[in-house]
């Protein structure tokens, strides 16, 4: 079950400049910065009401964000939804014919398990499923 619009992911070339821009735009500082080595990305998070804005910058030439920026430029990269049970949601979507980009949830930024739905099966939008990791 989808429970919340978790965040919008924005791909940026210069994370420091984008952080300054969004700090001014939102009139607040980010609450978190994180390096996700497995994805070759640095992230910065801002809270906006019950949702978040995630700025993403690639740290390696072959990261998905670097490739995205090269192909499409800066802008909205993905829409993320919080789900109650990521594995059950993945199974339901797969059964309904959606193409998932990973077979198992993986650890993402901001203490989440994540899985992506291919844009070709979601009307051109990269959809991220997120579930909080309970520790």
Automatic annotation (TrEMBL):
One of its GO terms (biological process) is L-methylmalonyl-CoA metabolic process. This is Methylmalonyl-CoA epimerase. Residues 4-132 form the VOC domain. Keywords: Metal-binding. Gene3D superfamilies: 2,3-Dihydroxybiphenyl 1,2-Dioxygenase, domain 1 (3.10.180.10). It holds the Pfam family Glyoxalase_4. One of its GO terms (molecular function) is metal ion binding. PANTHER family: METHYLMALONYL-COA EPIMERASE (PTHR43048), METHYLMALONYL-COA EPIMERASE, MITOCHONDRIAL (PTHR43048:SF3). InterPro entries: Glyas_Bleomycin-R_OHBP_Dase (IPR029068), MeMalonyl-CoA_epimerase (IPR017515), MMCE/EMCE_epimerase (IPR051785), VOC_core (IPR037523). Belongs to the methylmalonyl-CoA epimerase family. It comes from Hymenobacter roseosalivarius DSM 11622. PROSITE patterns: VOC (PS51819). It comes from the Bacteria.
């Amino acid at each position: 079950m989808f429970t919340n619009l978790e965040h919008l992911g924005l791909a940026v070339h210069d994370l420091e400049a984008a952080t300054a821009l969004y700090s001014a735009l939102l009139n607040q500082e980010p609450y978190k910065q994180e390096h996700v080595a497995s994805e070759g990305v640095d992230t910065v998070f801002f809270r906006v009401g019950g949702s978040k804005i995630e700025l993403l910058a690639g740290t390696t030439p072959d990261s998905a964000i670097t490739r995205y920026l090269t192909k499409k430029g800066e802008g909205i990269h993905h829409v993320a939804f919080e789900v109650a049970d990521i594995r059950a949601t993945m199974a339901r979507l797969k059964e309904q014919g959606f193409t998932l980009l990973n077979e198992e949830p993986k650890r993402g930024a901001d203490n989440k398990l994540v899985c992506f739905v291919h844009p070709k099966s979601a009307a051109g939008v990269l959809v991220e499923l997120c579930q909080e990791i309970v520790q």
